[in-house]
Design a protein that fits this description.
By secondary structure, the chain is an alpha+beta fold. It has helices spanning 2-6, 82-96, 217-225, 260-263, 297-307, 314-317, 320-325, and strands at 19-23, 28-31, 37-38, 45-49, 63-73, 119-123, 136-140, 169-174, 183-186, 199-202, 272-273, 276-277, 343-345, 352-356, 365-369, 374-378, 385-389, 396-402, 406-412. Bound molecules: zinc ion (ZN).
Length: 413
Protein backbone atom coordinates (compact mmCIF):
# COMPACT_ATOMS: atom_id res chain seq x y z
CA UNK A 1 0.00 0.00 0.00
CA UNK A 2 2.74 2.43 0.82
CA UNK A 3 4.43 1.73 -2.47
CA UNK A 4 1.16 2.34 -4.24
CA UNK A 5 0.72 5.67 -2.56
CA UNK A 6 4.24 6.80 -3.36
CA UNK A 7 3.70 6.26 -7.04
CA UNK A 8 0.69 8.56 -7.15
CA UNK A 9 0.35 12.26 -6.92
CA UNK A 10 -1.98 12.34 -3.98
CA UNK A 11 -3.23 15.80 -4.74
CA UNK A 12 -4.75 14.94 -8.08
CA UNK A 13 -5.29 11.23 -8.25
CA UNK A 14 -7.97 10.54 -5.75
CA UNK A 15 -10.73 9.85 -8.17
CA UNK A 16 -10.86 6.37 -6.81
CA UNK A 17 -11.15 5.67 -3.15
CA UNK A 18 -7.81 4.75 -1.72
CA UNK A 19 -7.54 2.85 1.48
CA UNK A 20 -4.96 4.38 3.68
CA UNK A 21 -3.80 2.80 6.85
CA UNK A 22 -4.29 5.22 9.65
CA UNK A 23 -1.83 4.13 12.27
CA UNK A 24 -2.43 5.45 15.72
CA UNK A 25 -5.01 8.05 14.96
CA UNK A 26 -3.44 11.45 14.57
CA UNK A 27 -6.76 13.17 14.51
CA UNK A 28 -7.19 13.48 18.19
CA UNK A 29 -7.25 17.07 19.19
CA UNK A 30 -6.45 17.83 22.73
CA UNK A 31 -6.92 21.15 24.30
CA UNK A 32 -5.01 21.47 27.51
CA UNK A 33 -3.13 24.06 29.51
CA UNK A 34 -2.57 27.15 27.43
CA UNK A 35 -5.47 26.18 25.26
CA UNK A 36 -3.25 24.32 22.84
CA UNK A 37 -4.64 21.76 20.48
CA UNK A 38 -2.28 18.81 20.67
CA UNK A 39 -2.20 15.41 19.06
CA UNK A 40 -1.96 12.32 21.15
CA UNK A 41 -1.13 8.87 20.07
CA UNK A 42 -4.16 6.64 19.99
CA UNK A 43 -4.15 2.94 20.56
CA UNK A 44 -6.58 2.18 17.81
CA UNK A 45 -5.95 1.44 14.21
CA UNK A 46 -8.55 2.12 11.63
CA UNK A 47 -8.86 2.49 7.92
CA UNK A 48 -9.77 5.70 6.26
CA UNK A 49 -11.21 5.96 2.82
CA UNK A 50 -10.40 9.17 1.07
CA UNK A 51 -13.36 10.80 -0.55
CA UNK A 52 -11.39 13.06 -2.86
CA UNK A 53 -13.32 13.10 -6.07
CA UNK A 54 -11.93 16.19 -7.83
CA UNK A 55 -15.45 17.41 -8.36
CA UNK A 56 -16.69 20.43 -6.60
CA UNK A 57 -20.10 21.86 -6.10
CA UNK A 58 -20.23 25.12 -7.96
CA UNK A 59 -23.69 26.25 -6.95
CA UNK A 60 -24.26 28.57 -4.06
CA UNK A 61 -26.68 26.25 -2.31
CA UNK A 62 -26.20 25.41 1.34
CA UNK A 63 -25.77 21.87 2.61
CA UNK A 64 -28.17 21.47 5.53
CA UNK A 65 -27.46 18.58 7.86
CA UNK A 66 -29.49 17.16 10.78
CA UNK A 67 -27.43 16.96 13.93
CA UNK A 68 -28.02 15.21 17.26
CA UNK A 69 -26.14 15.74 20.50
CA UNK A 70 -25.84 12.86 22.95
CA UNK A 71 -24.95 14.26 26.35
CA UNK A 72 -23.41 11.59 28.57
CA UNK A 73 -22.94 12.42 32.23
CA UNK A 74 -22.08 10.85 35.55
CA UNK A 75 -21.96 13.97 37.71
CA UNK A 76 -24.90 16.38 37.37
CA UNK A 77 -22.59 19.23 36.35
CA UNK A 78 -21.73 17.34 33.19
CA UNK A 79 -25.37 17.03 32.20
CA UNK A 80 -25.00 20.25 30.28
CA UNK A 81 -28.05 22.29 29.41
CA UNK A 82 -29.80 22.46 26.08
CA UNK A 83 -28.99 26.17 26.14
CA UNK A 84 -25.27 25.36 26.21
CA UNK A 85 -25.70 22.98 23.29
CA UNK A 86 -27.58 25.67 21.39
CA UNK A 87 -24.80 28.13 22.13
CA UNK A 88 -22.17 25.75 20.77
CA UNK A 89 -24.29 24.97 17.73
CA UNK A 90 -24.82 28.64 16.95
CA UNK A 91 -21.08 29.26 17.08
CA UNK A 92 -20.47 26.28 14.80
CA UNK A 93 -23.02 27.50 12.28
CA UNK A 94 -21.67 31.03 12.30
CA UNK A 95 -18.17 29.73 11.58
CA UNK A 96 -19.30 27.48 8.73
CA UNK A 97 -21.17 30.41 7.19
CA UNK A 98 -18.37 32.92 7.83
CA UNK A 99 -20.64 34.92 10.05
CA UNK A 100 -18.32 34.78 13.05
CA UNK A 101 -17.48 38.19 14.44
CA UNK A 102 -13.73 37.52 14.45
CA UNK A 103 -13.71 37.21 10.67
CA UNK A 104 -12.53 40.83 10.75
CA UNK A 105 -9.30 39.66 12.40
CA UNK A 106 -8.20 37.58 9.40
CA UNK A 107 -4.87 38.97 8.24
CA UNK A 108 -4.89 40.58 4.81
CA UNK A 109 -3.07 37.90 2.76
CA UNK A 110 -5.76 35.34 3.63
CA UNK A 111 -8.84 37.51 3.32
CA UNK A 112 -9.36 36.64 -0.38
CA UNK A 113 -9.52 32.91 0.31
CA UNK A 114 -11.47 32.94 3.59
CA UNK A 115 -14.60 31.01 2.71
CA UNK A 116 -18.24 30.76 3.55
CA UNK A 117 -18.31 26.94 3.64
CA UNK A 118 -22.06 26.92 2.92
CA UNK A 119 -22.81 24.15 5.42
CA UNK A 120 -25.46 24.43 8.12
CA UNK A 121 -26.31 22.13 11.00
CA UNK A 122 -29.83 21.88 12.42
CA UNK A 123 -31.03 20.00 15.47
CA UNK A 124 -33.01 16.92 14.41
CA UNK A 125 -36.72 17.19 15.19
CA UNK A 126 -37.63 13.56 14.54
CA UNK A 127 -35.69 10.64 15.98
CA UNK A 128 -34.89 7.36 14.15
CA UNK A 129 -38.15 5.85 15.40
CA UNK A 130 -40.30 8.65 14.04
CA UNK A 131 -40.84 10.30 17.40
CA UNK A 132 -40.43 13.99 18.13
CA UNK A 133 -37.10 15.08 19.57
CA UNK A 134 -35.31 18.34 20.16
CA UNK A 135 -32.12 16.83 18.80
CA UNK A 136 -30.49 16.47 22.21
CA UNK A 137 -30.40 13.35 24.37
CA UNK A 138 -29.25 13.23 27.98
CA UNK A 139 -28.07 9.90 29.35
CA UNK A 140 -26.75 9.05 32.79
CA UNK A 141 -23.82 6.69 32.77
CA UNK A 142 -21.92 4.78 35.44
CA UNK A 143 -18.78 5.54 33.52
CA UNK A 144 -16.86 8.51 34.89
CA UNK A 145 -14.42 8.52 31.98
CA UNK A 146 -14.51 6.70 28.70
CA UNK A 147 -11.00 5.35 28.86
CA UNK A 148 -11.22 3.53 25.57
CA UNK A 149 -11.93 5.89 22.73
CA UNK A 150 -15.03 4.20 21.40
CA UNK A 151 -16.73 3.32 24.69
CA UNK A 152 -19.02 6.33 24.49
CA UNK A 153 -20.52 5.01 21.25
CA UNK A 154 -21.95 1.79 22.68
CA UNK A 155 -24.67 1.18 25.27
CA UNK A 156 -22.82 -1.93 26.42
CA UNK A 157 -19.77 0.06 27.48
CA UNK A 158 -21.60 2.81 29.33
CA UNK A 159 -22.12 5.06 26.35
CA UNK A 160 -25.11 5.61 24.15
CA UNK A 161 -25.50 4.33 20.63
CA UNK A 162 -25.30 6.58 17.62
CA UNK A 163 -28.37 7.20 15.57
CA UNK A 164 -27.94 5.97 11.97
CA UNK A 165 -24.90 7.91 10.87
CA UNK A 166 -26.00 8.25 7.26
CA UNK A 167 -29.07 10.12 8.50
CA UNK A 168 -27.83 12.04 11.53
CA UNK A 169 -24.58 13.75 12.39
CA UNK A 170 -23.95 12.38 15.89
CA UNK A 171 -22.12 14.41 18.52
CA UNK A 172 -21.23 12.62 21.76
CA UNK A 173 -20.67 15.15 24.53
CA UNK A 174 -18.72 13.79 27.49
CA UNK A 175 -16.69 14.96 30.44
CA UNK A 176 -13.65 13.12 29.18
CA UNK A 177 -12.55 10.29 26.92
CA UNK A 178 -9.35 8.41 26.25
CA UNK A 179 -7.58 10.54 28.83
CA UNK A 180 -8.66 13.79 27.19
CA UNK A 181 -10.40 16.32 29.41
CA UNK A 182 -10.49 19.20 26.97
CA UNK A 183 -10.71 18.27 23.32
CA UNK A 184 -12.51 16.27 20.71
CA UNK A 185 -12.17 13.85 17.88
CA UNK A 186 -13.89 13.94 14.53
CA UNK A 187 -14.06 10.79 12.42
CA UNK A 188 -12.84 11.06 8.86
CA UNK A 189 -15.27 9.58 6.31
CA UNK A 190 -15.03 5.80 6.41
CA UNK A 191 -17.20 2.77 5.83
CA UNK A 192 -15.37 0.60 8.31
CA UNK A 193 -17.40 1.27 11.46
CA UNK A 194 -20.55 3.15 10.47
CA UNK A 195 -21.64 3.48 14.09
CA UNK A 196 -18.47 5.41 14.88
CA UNK A 197 -18.94 8.10 12.27
CA UNK A 198 -19.34 11.35 14.16
CA UNK A 199 -17.69 13.54 16.72
CA UNK A 200 -16.88 13.00 20.38
CA UNK A 201 -16.09 16.12 22.32
CA UNK A 202 -15.67 17.14 25.94
CA UNK A 203 -18.43 19.36 27.24
CA UNK A 204 -16.09 22.26 28.01
CA UNK A 205 -15.47 22.58 24.27
CA UNK A 206 -19.17 23.09 23.48
CA UNK A 207 -20.40 26.67 23.71
CA UNK A 208 -19.24 29.44 25.95
CA UNK A 209 -21.85 29.18 28.69
CA UNK A 210 -22.30 26.59 31.43
CA UNK A 211 -19.22 24.39 31.40
CA UNK A 212 -18.29 25.68 27.94
CA UNK A 213 -15.13 27.72 27.55
CA UNK A 214 -15.52 28.80 23.95
CA UNK A 215 -12.88 28.29 21.33
CA UNK A 216 -12.97 26.49 18.00
CA UNK A 217 -12.24 22.84 18.79
CA UNK A 218 -15.79 21.86 17.79
CA UNK A 219 -15.36 23.56 14.41
CA UNK A 220 -11.97 21.87 13.97
CA UNK A 221 -13.45 18.43 14.62
CA UNK A 222 -16.30 19.11 12.21
CA UNK A 223 -13.62 19.84 9.63
CA UNK A 224 -12.26 16.34 10.16
CA UNK A 225 -15.74 14.82 9.91
CA UNK A 226 -15.98 16.52 6.52
CA UNK A 227 -12.64 15.04 5.44
CA UNK A 228 -10.29 17.91 6.18
CA UNK A 229 -6.79 17.06 7.31
CA UNK A 230 -4.53 19.19 9.42
CA UNK A 231 -2.68 21.82 7.42
CA UNK A 232 0.53 19.83 7.64
CA UNK A 233 -1.09 16.85 6.00
CA UNK A 234 -2.52 13.52 6.85
CA UNK A 235 0.02 12.08 9.21
CA UNK A 236 2.77 13.86 10.99
CA UNK A 237 3.60 15.53 14.23
CA UNK A 238 3.10 19.30 14.30
CA UNK A 239 6.38 21.14 14.35
CA UNK A 240 8.27 18.47 12.41
CA UNK A 241 10.08 20.25 9.58
CA UNK A 242 9.78 17.18 7.33
CA UNK A 243 6.06 17.99 7.11
CA UNK A 244 6.99 20.66 4.54
CA UNK A 245 7.17 17.86 1.98
CA UNK A 246 3.59 16.83 2.70
CA UNK A 247 0.32 18.37 1.70
CA UNK A 248 -3.21 18.40 3.03
CA UNK A 249 -4.73 17.80 -0.42
CA UNK A 250 -6.08 21.33 -0.46
CA UNK A 251 -4.49 23.58 -3.04
CA UNK A 252 -4.87 26.98 -1.42
CA UNK A 253 -3.55 26.19 2.06
CA UNK A 254 0.19 26.92 2.20
CA UNK A 255 2.36 23.97 3.11
CA UNK A 256 3.60 24.28 6.65
CA UNK A 257 5.17 22.08 9.25
CA UNK A 258 2.28 22.57 11.60
CA UNK A 259 1.48 24.85 14.48
CA UNK A 260 4.22 27.30 13.60
CA UNK A 261 2.65 29.67 16.07
CA UNK A 262 4.26 27.56 18.74
CA UNK A 263 6.98 25.61 17.10
CA UNK A 264 8.24 28.02 14.45
CA UNK A 265 9.44 31.56 14.54
CA UNK A 266 7.34 33.15 17.28
CA UNK A 267 5.83 35.77 15.04
CA UNK A 268 2.20 35.20 15.89
CA UNK A 269 -0.24 35.50 13.04
CA UNK A 270 2.63 36.18 10.63
CA UNK A 271 4.53 33.00 11.41
CA UNK A 272 6.30 31.32 8.52
CA UNK A 273 7.48 27.81 7.86
CA UNK A 274 8.35 25.92 4.70
CA UNK A 275 9.39 29.23 3.11
CA UNK A 276 5.99 30.88 3.12
CA UNK A 277 3.45 32.56 5.33
CA UNK A 278 1.43 30.09 7.35
CA UNK A 279 -2.33 30.19 7.72
CA UNK A 280 -2.22 30.01 11.49
CA UNK A 281 -5.78 31.33 11.74
CA UNK A 282 -7.08 28.30 9.91
CA UNK A 283 -9.40 26.06 11.92
CA UNK A 284 -7.31 23.06 10.87
CA UNK A 285 -4.07 24.33 12.37
CA UNK A 286 -3.05 23.68 15.97
CA UNK A 287 -2.74 27.35 16.75
CA UNK A 288 -4.57 28.63 19.83
CA UNK A 289 -8.23 27.77 19.60
CA UNK A 290 -9.34 31.37 20.11
CA UNK A 291 -7.38 32.83 17.21
CA UNK A 292 -8.61 30.39 14.58
CA UNK A 293 -11.29 31.99 12.46
CA UNK A 294 -11.33 30.70 8.88
CA UNK A 295 -11.62 27.89 6.37
CA UNK A 296 -10.26 28.43 2.89
CA UNK A 297 -12.11 28.18 -0.41
CA UNK A 298 -10.20 24.98 -1.16
CA UNK A 299 -11.17 23.45 2.16
CA UNK A 300 -14.82 24.31 1.55
CA UNK A 301 -14.64 22.55 -1.82
CA UNK A 302 -13.07 19.49 -0.23
CA UNK A 303 -15.84 19.38 2.39
CA UNK A 304 -18.42 19.61 -0.37
CA UNK A 305 -16.70 16.70 -2.12
CA UNK A 306 -17.08 14.67 1.05
CA UNK A 307 -20.76 15.59 1.21
CA UNK A 308 -21.23 14.39 -2.36
CA UNK A 309 -19.54 11.07 -1.61
CA UNK A 310 -21.25 7.93 -0.27
CA UNK A 311 -18.25 7.13 1.90
CA UNK A 312 -19.40 7.16 5.50
CA UNK A 313 -22.92 7.97 4.35
CA UNK A 314 -22.14 11.67 4.01
CA UNK A 315 -24.05 12.19 0.76
CA UNK A 316 -27.33 11.09 2.35
CA UNK A 317 -27.21 13.48 5.29
CA UNK A 318 -28.28 16.58 3.42
CA UNK A 319 -30.80 15.16 0.96
CA UNK A 320 -34.25 16.68 0.99
CA UNK A 321 -35.75 13.28 1.79
CA UNK A 322 -33.53 12.97 4.84
CA UNK A 323 -34.21 16.54 5.90
CA UNK A 324 -37.93 15.75 5.83
CA UNK A 325 -37.45 12.43 7.64
CA UNK A 326 -35.45 14.10 10.41
CA UNK A 327 -37.82 17.05 10.65
CA UNK A 328 -35.41 19.81 9.69
CA UNK A 329 -36.73 20.58 6.25
CA UNK A 330 -37.97 24.07 5.63
CA UNK A 331 -39.20 24.98 2.15
CA UNK A 332 -37.32 27.78 0.48
CA UNK A 333 -40.56 29.71 0.39
CA UNK A 334 -40.71 29.76 4.17
CA UNK A 335 -37.67 31.21 5.80
CA UNK A 336 -37.11 30.72 9.49
CA UNK A 337 -36.73 34.08 11.14
CA UNK A 338 -36.76 33.65 14.86
CA UNK A 339 -36.96 37.13 16.29
CA UNK A 340 -37.25 35.85 19.87
CA UNK A 341 -40.40 37.90 20.43
CA UNK A 342 -42.68 34.94 20.89
CA UNK A 343 -42.86 31.91 23.12
CA UNK A 344 -44.63 28.90 21.67
CA UNK A 345 -45.40 25.94 23.89
CA UNK A 346 -45.68 23.05 24.17
CA UNK A 347 -43.64 22.07 21.15
CA UNK A 348 -44.22 19.25 20.23
CA UNK A 349 -47.91 19.91 20.66
CA UNK A 350 -50.93 17.65 20.34
CA UNK A 351 -53.99 19.68 21.29
CA UNK A 352 -53.62 23.22 22.59
CA UNK A 353 -50.78 25.47 21.53
CA UNK A 354 -50.05 28.56 23.60
CA UNK A 355 -48.44 31.59 22.06
CA UNK A 356 -47.34 34.56 24.09
CA UNK A 357 -45.17 37.62 23.90
CA UNK A 358 -44.24 40.26 26.40
CA UNK A 359 -43.42 42.85 23.77
CA UNK A 360 -45.35 42.39 20.56
CA UNK A 361 -49.10 42.06 20.13
CA UNK A 362 -50.31 39.08 18.13
CA UNK A 363 -51.91 39.91 14.81
CA UNK A 364 -51.72 36.88 12.58
CA UNK A 365 -50.77 33.25 13.10
CA UNK A 366 -50.18 30.95 10.16
CA UNK A 367 -49.23 27.28 10.15
CA UNK A 368 -47.72 25.61 7.10
CA UNK A 369 -47.05 21.99 6.34
CA UNK A 370 -43.43 21.41 5.32
CA UNK A 371 -44.72 20.96 1.81
CA UNK A 372 -45.46 24.68 1.89
CA UNK A 373 -49.24 24.32 2.12
CA UNK A 374 -50.95 26.62 4.57
CA UNK A 375 -53.10 24.61 7.00
CA UNK A 376 -54.07 27.25 9.53
CA UNK A 377 -54.61 31.00 9.30
CA UNK A 378 -55.81 33.03 12.24
CA UNK A 379 -56.24 36.76 11.90
CA UNK A 380 -57.97 39.45 13.91
CA UNK A 381 -56.00 38.38 16.95
CA UNK A 382 -55.70 40.81 19.79
CA UNK A 383 -53.46 40.96 22.81
CA UNK A 384 -50.19 39.38 23.81
CA UNK A 385 -51.24 35.78 24.14
CA UNK A 386 -53.55 33.25 22.61
CA UNK A 387 -54.26 29.56 22.60
CA UNK A 388 -55.01 27.75 19.39
CA UNK A 389 -56.23 24.24 18.85
CA UNK A 390 -54.03 22.12 16.65
CA UNK A 391 -55.65 18.79 17.48
CA UNK A 392 -56.99 18.42 13.95
CA UNK A 393 -53.53 18.54 12.36
CA UNK A 394 -51.92 15.27 11.41
CA UNK A 395 -48.75 14.38 13.34
CA UNK A 396 -45.70 15.74 11.58
CA UNK A 397 -43.53 18.75 11.10
CA UNK A 398 -45.01 22.16 10.44
CA UNK A 399 -43.84 25.72 10.26
CA UNK A 400 -45.56 28.33 12.37
CA UNK A 401 -45.37 31.95 11.33
CA UNK A 402 -46.43 34.85 13.50
CA UNK A 403 -47.01 38.43 12.37
CA UNK A 404 -45.13 37.62 9.17
CA UNK A 405 -41.91 38.06 11.12
CA UNK A 406 -41.34 35.13 13.47
CA UNK A 407 -41.09 31.65 11.95
CA UNK A 408 -40.14 28.37 13.58
CA UNK A 409 -40.70 24.65 13.32
CA UNK A 410 -43.68 23.16 15.09
CA UNK A 411 -44.06 19.48 15.74
CA UNK A 412 -47.52 17.97 16.03
CA UNK A 413 -47.85 14.56 17.61
ZN1 LIG B 1 -7.37 17.64 14.50
Amino acid sequence: MNHFIKTLDLKYIYKIAILVSHFGSSFFCLQSAGNIDLPISGGSQEFIVSTRTCSSNTSDSVYIIPIVFHVLYHDPVDNISDAQIADGLQDLNERFRKQNADTIDIIAPFVPIAADARIEFRLAQIDPYGNPTNGITHTYTDSTAFDFLWDAYYDSTGGTHTWPTNRYLNIHVVKGFAGIIGGGRGTLPSDMFPERQGIIITNNMVGAIGTGTGGTVFTHEMGHFLNLYHLWAYLGIPGDTTNCANDDEVTDTPNCFGASYYYGTPSGLWAESCGSLDNVQNYMDYSPSQIRNMFTTGQAARMHDALESPVGGRNNLHTEANQIATGIFVPNSIKETNNNQFVIYPNPASENLHISSSREALKIVQVFHVSGKEVLNLTDLDGFQTTINVGHLRPGVYIIKINHSHTQRLIIR
